[in-house]
Amino acid sequence: MSDTRRRVKVYTLNEERQWEDRGTGHVCCSEADSLTVTGEADGSLLLESRISPDTAYQKQQDTLIVWSEAENCDLALSFQEKAGCDEIWEKICQVQGKDPSVEITQDPVDESEEERFEDTPESAQLLELPPCEPERLEELAELVTSVLPSPVRRERLALALLSSGYIRKLLQLFRASEEAGDRRGLQQLYQIVRGLLFLNKATLFEVMFSDDCIMDVVGCLEYEPALLQPKSHREFLTQTARFREVIPITDSELRQKIHQTYRVQYIQDIILPTQSVFEDNFLSTLSSFIFFNKVEIVSMLQEDEKFLTEVFAQLTDEATEDSKRRELVNFFKEFCAFSQTLQPQNRDAFFKTLANLGILPALEIVMGMEDVQVKAAATDIFSYLVEFSPSMVREFVMQEPQQADDVSITHTHTHTRVWTSVTTPYVRCGMKSVCCVQDVLLINVVIKQMICDSDPELGGAVQLMGLLRTLIDPENMLAPASKAEKSEFLSFFYKYCMHVLTAPLLANTAEEDPDLSEGAARVNPVCPDNFQTAQLLALILELLTFCVEHHSYHIKSYIMTRDLLRRVLTLMNSRHSFLALCALRFMRRIIGLKDEYYNRYIVKGNLFEPVINALLDNGTRYNLLNSAIIELFEFIRVEDIRSLTAHIVDNFTTALESIEYVQTFKGLKQRYEQEKERQSRGFSRYRRDTRSFEEDEDTWLNEDEEEDEVPDTGLDKCKSDYGKFMESEKVKESQDKENQAKRKFSFCHSAGAANTANGSRPPPSTSSSRAAAPPSGQTARTGLVDYPDDEDEEDEEEDAEEEQAPHKRPRLGS
């Protein structure tokens, strides 16, 4: 059926007293006196309801019909046109034998209560309203208060008020009382108007909230008897609160609906007292009134494509003034907030409309601007979009490189300011602020805004980090229609965006370059003590830890090829405990995977050294850092990770042997010795050739390097823009290979300090005992792998160890 008069939306009231949209279709009344709604999309049956002679049907706002079919089943039909509502209402009244001029067909109570009410002698007097005069206000106030407990009395009082035009007479009396300064009369009017709201009748609300009445209603509610002075709600609504039209709204009905909704929302949220649990149902119709108004506003704006197209055009126009652009962004923020009242089907259509009009490219521009308010509002809009459909956002950002040339030409001017603000903190690290194509990618703009958050508490950065986490979460990439989405998007993210995310981390953990000439700027290998920077690095580490847990292949390649864990563990030196714990948590997640490639990487790099140094630095303090480090080693012991156990026992036993307040390190040594004993008896389960393992690892990493070497001038340019971190790493690695025999790692504290009885530690000095560790790139023979062809080499190493043994013992400083 294509007749728009019969086009309706079907709503049901859920347990939270919120209306849920069940779909849009066309209604008809069958010969069997049943209301049937057929879905316009697929022809499915949305509603079939028999018109019962005893059911109370209520007509609201000219286009709504509401009724209850069971104790907890409230239904509503919202008509597109008033004519269709009137037609169905006449048929309902015809079935029930009612006059179509009434707004409700039955009293919404059981028969026994109605009979008791009709038998009451005072019933006729209750329906008779006193004259609208100042002397009779007290009597009217008592009448309104007395009917609130009874649904029947509330309904009959509402009918009496409407039939005589009593509400407008009351508001005229209010104006006269206010001019005369009759404070007692004004306080009685407050009680009366408040009681009228609690009658919970939509027909009354339509009169009270009309343009010519609503401000007088607000005026009556200013004179609360408990207050010494009246409130100034009308002054706020007329002078302080200003209606700003970013684009002139020509539809007068839409303008009126916006004003009405704002004022009614103000009455509910600000003027009326907080409802108790016993009063929740008193204002349910008021909430429904606001809800349907918002639905109508969003629908009217959404259907006006000319209006939205003009808004987007001005938003993205570089000639638009900053103040105007701020208003446009705030409009969209409010628009998206209104859309949250829509049900899923309508909300999907709403956001698809915005996407088709270009909301994401527009956000890409405004999020890169310097105006703090604009960026904050744009972030809120972006959060609505990500919450609605992460896949839609991912699809957009993956298409951006295909249009990179056009985007960079169009938006270079806008994003140059962002780029400068991002790179400024890292100029000391040799970075250059040269704009490249990838700077205009939406995710990179989001990451840069997170990095450059000016809030000392990084409130905006925390919000953006959560959005990034949602976008890179594989759990919401499992839709059957997009099976390739996970691999494609993660490859895109690690190719174009990961280096932007890790830039602050790499910049603040850069090691000192020994080749720098005298007087040249040197970078502190320890992260700075700035609290805001530490918070930012903690956020980045939290996101990287999430990647370790959920992106097995991509993050593994990234960590190993860039030696990222070594840089992260530099943060164990931070004076901010939360940052040191974030670095430790990152390593703990890696070890928790029990991936032998990761384990091999940790052993080759001797990456336990900064962790054990932090444990010894902590001394006898019993705190979270101490517990977290102990838990890390306990996990290795319980899970029997042999390669790590052998590395720890071989290289750090001397430093840790005196820590006796836990049995973790003794347990590690016992496991190591038990495995050696099993090997000596020929029961070793470690028979794989180490060289074949190394060959597998080199092959795996070489494959990753081949993928990374895909020609991409934009990526190379971006890497150089953030600094020559990778080049310096390659230089450092080549130097490490040449000087492997010369490198020595040592600890800064005596291991005996961990168990000093009085809790004191000797001050650090050059004579403090240190435990030697193998250089990076070399691993000590663990004894867990027994190879027949390595006996000669093992004998030579045992002789060397006997010669070096005295140097491994810790010497307490005098």
UniProtKB/TrEMBL annotation:
Q: InterPro entries recorded for this chain? A: ARM-type_fold, EVH1_PP4R3, P4R3-like_central_dom, PH-like_dom_sf, PP4R3-like
Q: Which GO terms describe its cellular component?
A: nucleoplasm; protein phosphatase 4 complex
User: Which ranges are annotated Basic and acidic residues under compositional bias?
Assistant: 714-741
At the top level of its lineage, which domain of life is listed? Eukaryota
Q: Where is the composition biased (Low complexity)?
A: 766-776
Q: Which GO terms describe its molecular function?
A: protein phosphatase activator activity
Single biological process term from Gene Ontology: DNA damage response
Composition-biased stretches (Acidic residues):
694-711, 787-803
- Serine/threonine-protein phosphatase 4 regulatory subunit 3-like central domain location is 139-674
In residue numbers, the region (Disordered) covers: 694-814
Which SUPFAM superfamilies does the record associate with it?
Answer: ARM repeat, PH domain-like
Q: Which family does it belong to?
A: Belongs to the SMEK family.
User: What does this chain do?
Assistant: Regulatory subunit of serine/threonine-protein phosphatase 4.
Its recorded name reads Serine/threonine-protein phosphatase 4 regulatory subunit 3
The record lists the organism as Carassius auratus
